[in-house]
Write a structure and sequence with these properties.
By secondary structure, the protein is α/β, with parallel strands linked by helices. The chain is 60% helix and 10% strand. It contains 18 helices and seven strands. A seven-stranded mixed sheet has the order 3-2-1-4-6-5-7, sandwiched between helices. Helix 8 (232-242) runs parallel beside helix 9 (263-290), helix 9 (263-290) crosses helix 15 and helix 9 packs across helix 16. The longest helix is centred in the N-terminal third of the chain and has 31 residues, at 2-32.
Length: 472
């Protein structure tokens, strides 16, 4: 049994350590081409743009969104706004009113309705493309509020072989709670260094599903929107790059948005991202390795597509951590084996610290960046541990299940969020409580054995499973 524990520890540690090496490579690429603070001069060209706004029961934010998009600085005769409205509640009437208001002011706006929600967001985008007239397709989710000059700046960044310009997500409610601060902390690092490093380092990058402008010809050349995964954005972006198109991320092109404030909403979003990421990995890892892409693009692309699957290793560690102290106490031979097995993990911790510290210092300055890292990283690690079972189940469903249901992320003031809290994942929630008790049992044993390092981590692990049970 002791050797089985060591073997599981070694495999999980190696997976996390390998992913850390990929992150270190991205950090090196970022350092060589750190993003600038400015944007290029707005392009004098004004191609026809279709702005697509996929909505599903977004009554609390629909009016705000449509009015923001109606204020974009783009000639009305070259702008088309499609509200892809699959709603079944009062959102339908709100959208109809706002679209009529835009049309009365001379804007080409339309409310696109479907008989059913087949294909969820991807299906809505694909259906909208049939009637779209734009050379460029801009996409914004319901909670995004782009600045009036967003289109002009994005178009200025589109080169002839660039199929997508992706903007950075800002945060309207960064400081609302510990939940929103942790999410902002992680997303800032993702955009600040990961997206920039992949773009400027000549690697494969992903579309983030919103706050981006596509060339229509790129979407069509890549095969259009597919409905066989829950992360249609990642799927399309990889297919576009394998078809020869370049994608561009622009750090200074920001679109503020709303972060989920409720743990039920975070769970819904994480389930979609984790399951969808595994689905895309299952679908495209083969085509990626059979392609003519350079070897380093294949390696980093693999690490990117398998990013969600790392939670399987995190869960494995959560399960066996309470057994480490008993294994260590069984003899010096086991202590040596555990030390060797955990060697890759000793790379992961400083890598995480370096990545997030660098991102925060770049974004906030040295003093504020250090303070933000020291407060944000522990909370992020709590979430990663606490959601490891939830996210691992989603990953396994992505690898071995069907397409699954697209669960929208409830927005601020959306009282339907309570249905996410009560109706889904009862088995997972019970499993999280079992893992919490299991961690506490290991903690008691570690304290009795005076294994202080193990005790500290097991206490941290138990708190992580407790934190994700909170609604706010």
């Amino acid at each position: 049994m002791a050797w089985i524990v060591v073997a599981i520890l070694a495999v999980a540690s190696l997976a996390i350590g390998t992913y850390s090496v990929a992150q270190l490579h991205l950090l090196w690429l970022w350092y060589r081409s750190r993003p600038g603070r400015g944007l290029p001069e707005a392009d004098a060209q004004v191609p026809r743009v279709t702005v697509q706004l996929p909505l599903y029961n977004e009554a609390d934010v629909a009016e705000r969104l449509i009015r923001c998009i109606g204020a974009l600085d783009w000639p009305a005769e070259r702008l088309e706004i499609q509200v892809l409205d699959d709603s079944t509640d009062r959102t339908v009437d709100i959208v109809a009113t706002e679209v009529a208001r835009l049309r009365s002011s001379g804007v080409d706006a339309v409310q696109v309705r479907r008989e059913d929600r087949a294909g969820y967001k991807a299906g809505a985008l694909r259906n909208g493309m049939k009637a779209a007239h734009g050379e460029l397709i801009a996409i914004f989710d319901a909670d995004f509020l782009p600045r009036p000059d967003f289109l002009r700046q994005a178009v200025a960044c589109l080169g002839p072989d660039v199929g997508l310009v992706q903007g950075r997500w800002g945060h309207l409610n960064r400081d609302t709670s510990a939940f929103t601060r942790a999410q902002a902390f992680h997303l800032d690092a993702h955009f600040t260094f990961e997206q920039h490093a992949r773009c400027r380092g000549g690697l494969l990058m992903g579309f983030n599903g919103t706050a981006g402008v596509w060339r229509r010809s790129c979407i069509e050349d890549a095969g259009g929107w597919n409905i066989d995964t829950l992360t249609e954005d990642l799927d399309l972006s990889y297919r576009a790059q394998l078809a020869g198109w370049g994608l561009r991320y622009v750090d200074a092109l920001e679109a503020p948005a709303e972060l989920p404030e409720d743990m039920a909403a975070i769970r819904a979003q994480q389930h979609r991202w984790m399951r969808g990421g595994a689905q895309v990995a299952h679908k495209l890892l083969g085509p990626l390795w059979r392609s003519d892409e350079p070897f380093r693009r294949k390696l980093q692309g693999t690490a990117h597509l398998l990013g969600s699957s790392i939670f399987l290793a995190v869960l494995a560690l959560a399960v066996i951590n309470p057994l480490i102290v008993p294994v260590l106490s069984s003899g010096s031979e086991m202590a040596i084996a555990v030390g060797a097995a955990t060697a890759p993990l000793r790379l992961a911790v400083p890598t995480l610290l370096l990545v997030y510290l660098t991102s925060c210092i770049f974004r906030d300055g040295r003093g504020a960046g250090v303070r933000r890292t020291l407060t944000g990283l522990p909370m992020l690690l709590l979430f990663c541990n606490g959601l490891s079972l939830h996210n691992s189940v989603a990953v396994l469903q992505g690898w071995f299940g069907g397409p699954g249901e697209f669960l929208r992320t409830p927005k601020r003031g959306d009282h339907s969020a309570s249905s996410y809290r009560m109706s889904r994942g009862a088995g997972v929630r019970l499993g999280e409580w079992v893992l919490c008790v299991w961690s506490v049992a290991g903690l008691v044993y570690a304290l009795d054995a005076a294994a202080w390092t193990s005790a500290a981590w097991l206490a941290f692990q138990a708190v992580g499973f407790l934190v994700v049970q909170r609604s706010r």
